[in-house]
Structures are given as C-alpha cells and as structure tokens.
Specification:
This protein has 523 residues and is α+β, with helices and mostly antiparallel strands. It has four domains: 66 residues; 157 residues, GAF domain (Beta-Lactamase); 64 residues; 166 residues, 2-Layer Sandwich (Heat Shock Protein 90), CATH 3.30.565.10. Helix content is 50%, strand content 19%. The chain has 14 helices and 17 strands. The protein has a six-stranded antiparallel β-sheet, with helices on both faces. The longest helix has 78 residues.
Length: 523
C-alpha cells in the first residue's frame, strides 16, 4: 500500500484465481494494486486530518496563552511597588483564569550573601483573596492591592513555610539553586523530591512534580519562581513550561522597572537632601561670619563692663544696697562673655592636632573636670570601658571638649529630677565597614521630645534658659572632622548619645588647612 513514495503497509491476498492452483490474472493484479492504492490514500488522509487537528489545537492553545500573557502583562506593569508585584504575580499564576497552577512560590536571590530566601507562597485559596472575580477585563483600571490582603497572604500557613526556606545558591543541589545558577527553567519530577535531603525545600514543602523558572534582568537572576499542582497531581508539560517561562520574562521586566524606579527615587531623595545640606551650610557660614563679627565687636566693651562691675562689687560693703546689683552685672557680663566665646569658637575654623591617644585617658580627664558637677547633682556614674580598645588617631583636646559638652548636657537633663544615673560605655565597633570604637553616653533625664530631635544639632537651638545652643553643634562638627558619626536616640529612661570614631583616619579626607601637626609617618 504505497502513495507518493510512502509505504503504509502490505496487503496480502490468499486464494488465487477462480481456477484453483493457478496464479492471479493480470486483471486481478491490477485490481488489487488499485485497491492497495485506495487504502493507502485513505490512510494518508486520516493521518493528515489528525495532524491538522493536533496543529490546530496547539495553535489555539498558544493563541490563548498569548492572549492571557497580554492581559497579565498589563496587570504586572500596573504597579510600581515590589511587594505588590510579588503578591500580584503569584496570584495571577495560581488563579484559574490565569496560570491555572495550584500553588506558586517566590524565592529571592541575595547576590551579596549568596543565598536564596523564600519570601512568599500563594495557594488557590489565598489567591482568591486578591482576585475574587478572576482576572479583570482588558484595559480595566489598575487593580487595587490592599495592604490587609497582602498581610493575610504572607501570614497564611503555606506562605510562612515558604518564608522559612533558606539555602546557599553556590553549593545547594536544590532545583531552586540550579535554576538560579543556570538561569534556565527546570521541570522536576516527583522522584527527584524523594532523592533530596529532608531539609530541602522540596521535602519540607511537599512538592511533587513542579517547575522552577528564574526571573532574569540584564544577565542577573533576581528571583526564582516555583509552581506545582499538588492538589490535582496534574503534570506540567512542555507547553505549560513555555508559558511559565514567558510569564517569568514579563515579571522579570516588571521587577527590574520597579527596582530602577526605586533607585531613581533614592537618587532624587539623596540629591534633594544634599541640596538642603548645602543651603543649610551656606546659611550657617553666613551666620557664622556675622556672629564672629558681632561677637568680636562686643567682646572688648563687655570685658570692660564686667571688670568695672567686679571692681565696683568688691569696693562696696556687703551691707551696701547697691552691691547685689553690681554682682548681677558681673554675673551677667561673665555669662555674655561665655556666650561670645562659644560663638567665636563655632564660627572660626578650628585646627586639628592629630596624634595617637588613648580614649580611656581622654574620658577620665573629662570626668575629672566634671566630677564635682556630678556629685552636686547627686548623679551616679557607671563607667564601662572595654580593655581591648586600641590607640586612636585624632585631636584629644577637642574630643575631650565633646565629652565635657555631653556630660554637661546629661547633668542638666537630670538636674530637675533630683539626681539620676550617667552611663558611659566604650567598646569596639564598625564604621562604614572599617574598625572603629563606639562610645555611648546615656542619662536618665527622660529623653528629648520627638519634635526637637531633628533640631538638636542646629546652631543656636536650645531648650535651656541660659544656653547658647552651640554646645552640640560644636561637638557634632568636631566628630565630623574626625571622620566619625554621632547619633542620638531616646531610651526607656532618657537620651543616649552614640559616638563612633574610626581607629585610623583617612589622610586624604583631612583638609590640610585644619592640621597643626601632620600624622606620624609610622601610623
């Protein structure tokens, strides 16, 4: 049975011609050949029809997938928040009108730590919370993703199991790690699950036949998607894997757009903050110049007023009615002189004398100078200095002034409370990834009001009747010149100032105009 050089089979006829024992006649042979051709032609028609039906079904399925992907792509690009995108992506994969899978899991790749961490898992039930009516129609408004539904999906039992999964990307034999490393989709059979160790995600999440697809962006693996049909046991074929791969491509583009937008917003925010800082510094420079000029002009006559008031008070008898007034003039003159000294100290550029010093020595000297004030205010001191602190580089005298200012502020904060407790804790730490020393100075004065917290390092901002508002700004600037950081937080009992100083100063970052003595070459 042959047609177009294609043989479908052989037709065997037994019995011979009407006369027994004689061969078939030529007419009979021609008839049988014609019958064989007709049968072959029928077979060919049946095969062709079956192929056409198969191709039509495959094309129809692909057309459905493309139409579905178009709708899904619109939804994925409707949000610019990473968390919303995660919940929406998994819900679309699980929805019966969407991907149609029974469970979907998302694992985030941490390139710096070399780990893969589960961040969300969605089932048919939890997907219905976000998509109760299935996929919205084409060109519909943006789909709202309420925070309470996001929280409910994250707190669902299956999602919590997914979030507990964590594995090393480079060494793990898990299908998730392989998909992240190879950047290719994987179809995993149920037999593979039983070969995995008990602590593997496949065993712990009871995943049978499933697929893992990486979300890629410019050659990097951002996340890994995993889907299965644990409820129905339906296998995931090549067509479904192809759909999942196209879905992951769109989701990867959407996630990359979200991350780019976040970086642009962060850059814009940093630029705005830098601009505000420059404007603030320009204002402070103007105020400093003006303050220095005024302070310089006022200091000389004020010294004369204070001196004459002192002489007048000393010349008057203690019973003289004018002596209290002379003493008031003297005290107020001295207070104004101190204020002018602070203004001049803040406005002028202070030089640094950098050399090695011991932090213990600087702190003990500052405490020795202020010990009398602590005793008068009935303040108990708790000093905890680690024994392994290294030598530091900087200007010990200026840093001593910083500690004195902070101790005085702590004493004044606890003055109205009838005593208190001052705790100073020094230990090793890190600053911008480099070795450093951290000094915590905390009091029991009740803390700093939240409305004032952001202004405490601004010049001339003070809550004290007799304060100049320059103690903390001067201290802040000294710490900055030493390439350190100072932060303040409110604890349960009071305020805590935390100073972090680097062990080694960066020579290139030091302004040569601020140096009185160069760094020792052996440092």
């Amino acid at each position: 049975m042959k047609i177009h050089d294609r043989i479908f089979g052989t037709l065997s006829l037994l019995g011979g011609s009407p006369n027994d024992g004689e061969p078939f006649t030529p007419e009979q042979q021609e008839l049988y050949l014609s019958c064989g051709f007709q049968i072959a032609q029928t077979f060919e028609q049946l095969v062709t029809v079956a192929r056409l039906r198969q191709v039509s079904a495959s094309d129809f399925r692909r057309l459905q997938d493309l139409s579905l992907l178009y709708r899904i792509t619109q939804l994925l690009h409707s949000t610019m928040a990473a968390n919303e995108l995660f919940h929406l992506s998994l819900s679309l994969l699980v929805s019966p009108d969407g991907g149609g899978f029974h469970r979907a899991m998302l694992f985030m790749v941490n390139e710096r730590g070399g780990t893969i961490q589960g961040i969300l898992g969605v089932t048919r039930e939890t997907a219905g919370w976000l998509l109760p009516d299935g996929l919205p129609p084409v060109n519909s408004p943006n789909l709202p993703i309420p925070e309470d539904i996001q929280l409910a999906q994250r707190e669902a039992p299956f999602s919590r199991e997914v979030m507990q999964q964590r594995l090393m990307m480079a060494t793990s034999e898990s299908c998730l790690a392989k998909a992240a490393r190879t950047q290719k989709p994987l179809l995993i059979s149920e037999e593979f699950e039983h070969k995995q160790p008990p602590q593997s995600p496949c065993r712990q999440l009871h995943i049978g036949d499933h697929a893992c697809v990486p979300l890629l962006s410019r050659g990097r693996t951002l996340c890994v998607l995993a889907v299965d049909n644990a409820d129905s046991g339906e296998t995931i074929d090549a067509e479904r894997l192809r759909f999942l791969e196209m879905f992951a491509g769109q989701a990867g583009i959407a996630l990359d757009n979200v991350q780019l937008l976040q970086r642009v917003e962060a850059a814009h925010r940093n630029l705005r903050e830098t601009q505000e800082q420059l404007l603030q510094r320009e204002k402070l420079a103007t105020i400093g110049e003006m303050s220095a000029s005024i302070a310089h002009e006022l200091k000389n006559p004020l010294v004369s007023v204070g001196g004459f008031a002192r002489r007048l008070a000393n010349s008057l008898d203690r019973q003289h009615p004018g002596r209290p007034f002379a003493e008031i003039i003297q005290q107020e003159s001295e207070r104004l002189e101190k204020m002018l000294e602070d203004i001049l100290s803040f406005s002028k550029q202070r030089l640094l004398c950098i050399r090695e010093y011991r932090l213990q020595t600087v702190l003990e000297k500052a405490l020795q100078l202020e010990r009398g004030h602590l005793q008068q205010a009935d303040i108990q001191l708790q000093l905890d200095i680690a024994e392994d602190l290294p030598l530091l580089q900087g200007d010990a005298e200026q840093l001593e002034q910083v500690f004195i200012n902070l101790i005085i502020n702590a004493c004044q904060a606890m003055k109205n409370g009838g005593g208190g407790e001052l705790a100073i804790n020094c230990r090793r730490g890190l600053l911008r990834g480099e070795p450093a020393v951290q000094i915590d100075i905390s009091d029991t004065g009740g803390g700093i009001p939240a409305t004032m917290m952001r202004n405490i390092f601004n010049p001339f901002f003070t809550t004290k009747e007799a304060g100049t508002g320059l103690g903390l700004p001067i201290s802040h600037r000294i710490i900055e010149h030493h390439q350190g950081e100072v932060n303040v937080i409110n604890t349960a009992r009071g305020a805590c100032f935390s100073i972090t100083l680097p062990i080694y100063l960066n020579r290139r970052a030091i302004d040569p105009l601020q140096l009185r003595k160069p760094l020792d070459e052996k440092d």
